[in-house]
From TrEMBL:
Annotated protein name in UniProt: Putative outer membrane starch-binding protein
Signal peptide: none
Family from the record: Belongs to the SusD family.
GO cellular component annotations of the record: cell outer membrane
Location (main, coarse): membrane
InterPro entries linked: SusD-like_N, SusD_RagB_dom, TPR-like_helical_dom_sf
Domain RagB/SusD residue range list: 352-455
Signal recorded as keyword: yes
Domain SusD-like N-terminal, chain residue ranges per copy: 106-229
Keyword Signal in record: yes
Keywords: Cell outer membrane, Membrane, Signal
């Protein structure tokens, strides 16, 4: 392992050293020299763990990842100031994959995810240096918990990598080819994810009262259920989500309008989110999601409610929401230009010349001016980025019970009632997929994943060809660095 950072540059093109920081209290997240750490002091043992959270927060919030995850579905188009503004996203949107292999955003996304993976190995190595000096069973149990918090992020990164690219390398420092890894089959990658998550479920606590928002046993179970859903293992989905519902202590956040805003940070529905803060100060240091929020902000607006105008909602999705009579979810999911928000912010008109309608932005990136700390002028300042939430657990549970038997109506209607919709006594798979579309719009590629796993993508997405367009091409620069990526997949 000690040689990984020396040679893994051949895979990634960028050498990454993870940071070790206190929980959300260090803004300049540089590398702490390992020689400055006293490994005999167990009170410092959380530092490698905190470094992984910080690294995941940075990498997963890279703005260029967000369009890659979402523009292939039927909810958003790339947006921007013109059709040529980051126009390669349109090739991805239209499944013209031959034109995107050299796209900088594709390579950056690959790098970001694999930097998370490698960071977990590096920080486990640091954690093991503390282990050498531990003397009590309680300390050893705590070290296992800390390792599980690190390992969860490896599983999360592989989940996202394999969803985007399918057959991808599994990093193994003990493999003589680790600097030039071969691709593993998606099934093998998912098996590794399950193995990591089983370790997490065994060693993570049921709650994190000290480090609020840190991963728990139920965070790992939720991710494992999502992997099982993609695999069609509905019995496992049912078992996992039943336990989360019964024992996880989660509930849907009642103030739905504020679910993705400041009051909803780390709320009762949150299972995992990337944490940011301005420390309650109107100036000075902040841990900020930056361009992730800014690229989705409305054009032609005054700060702090302003941005680049990307991720514009498609007319088909807008009509879908209107046809369903969505009002509560509309106010959350849709930020309409030439309108006033329920929070009182004016959103100026933006009429893109490449669309037949005025701009409708992703409302889940919007924070009202009244909630932003006075003195801050950054769009989305002080807000978190949600990744896993309880509504997903409920709808996964409902779908599994429709498929294998059980009371699907109760979890399904819990989500509908929160959204102000009438219950459905016997929901079908189509009902659940529509509910997921309305509930998880522009969230981590959920809609595209749902269409692919149910075999509906070719019927819904113009240009999509089954067996050809499920996965993005591996970036050319990665193949140039590692020719083994062109070799046959290792089953």
């Amino acid at each position: 392992m000690k040689y990984m950072n020396k040679y893994i540059v051949l895979l990634l093109g960028v050498l990454m050293l993870t940071s070790c920081e206190d929980w959300l209290h260090v803004v300049q997240e540089g590398t702490i020299p390992t020689e400055d750490i006293d490994y005999t002091d167990s009170s410092q043992m959380y530092a490698p763990v905190s470094g992984v959270y910080a690294n995941a927060r940075r990498k997963l919030a890279q703005w260029e990842i967000w369009p890659l995850l979402n523009v292939r579905n039927d909810e958003v188009t790339k947006g921007g100031g013109s059709v040529a503004d980051q126009g390669t996203y349109l090739d991805i949107e239209n499944f013209n994959y031959d034109a995107v292999k050299g796209f900088w955003a594709l390579n950056n996304t690959w790098n970001a995810y694999y930097q998370i993976v490698i960071g977990t190995y590096n920080n486990i190595e640091l954690l093991n240096r503390f282990r050498e000096h531990l003397t009590t069973d309680d300390q050893l149990v705590l070290a296992d918990q800390y390792e599980a918090e690190i390992v969860f992020h490896r599983a999360l990164a592989y989940y996202m990598i394999s969803n985007l690219w399918g057959d991808v390398p599994l990093i193994d420092a003990e493999d003589v080819n680790f600097a030039f890894p071969y691709r593993s089959s998606q099934a093998k990658v998912r098996a590794a994810i399950h193995e990591d998550l089983d370790f997490c479920i065994t060693h993570l606590p049921e709650s994190q009262p000290v480090n609020k928002g840190a991963v728990t046993k139920y965070t790992a179970m939720t991710l494992k259920a999502k992997v099982a859903l993609l695999e069609g293992n509905y019995e496992l989905v049912k078992t996992l989500t039943d336990e989360i519902i019964a024992n996880g202590g989660y509930r849907l956040y009642e103030d739905y309008y504020n679910l993705f805003k400041i009051p909803g940070k780390l709320c009762s529905e949150s299972i995992y989110e990337l944490q940011f803060t301005d420390f309650g100060n109107g100036s000075g240091d902040q841990v900020y999601g930056g361009a992730w929020f800014q690229h989705q902000g409305p054009r032609n607006n005054k700060a702090p409610i302003s941005g680049w105008g990307f991720m514009l909602l498609e007319p088909e999705f807008i009509q879908f929401m209107k046809d369903r009579g969505e009002t509560k979810r509309w106010d959350v999911a849709v930020l309409e230009s030439d309108a006033v928000t329920p929070a009182g912010d004016n959103i100026n008109l933006f009429q893109p010349d490449y669309m037949d309608i005025k701009a409708h932005y992703n409302g889940k990136a919007y924070v009202p001016k009244s909630q932003i700390t006075e003195g801050r002028n950054d769009y989305g300042s002080n807000n978190n980025i949600r990744i896993l939430r309880y509504a997903d657990v409920l709808l996964m549970n409902a779908e599994a019970k429709v498929r294998v038997g059980g009371d699907a109506a109760t979890p399904f209607n819990e989500v509908r009632l929160r959204a102000g919709l009438e219950p459905i006594s016997n929901p079908t798979i189509e009902d659940i997929l529509d509910e997921r579309r309305a509930e998880f719009s522009v969230e981590w590629g959920e809609r595209f994943n749902d269409l692919v796993r149910t075999g509906k993508a070719a019927d819904v997405l113009p240009g999509f060809v089954a067996g050809k367009h499920e996965f993005l091409p591996i970036p050319t620069s990665q193949e140039d660095l590692n020719p083994n990526l062109l070799a046959p997949v290792q089953e």
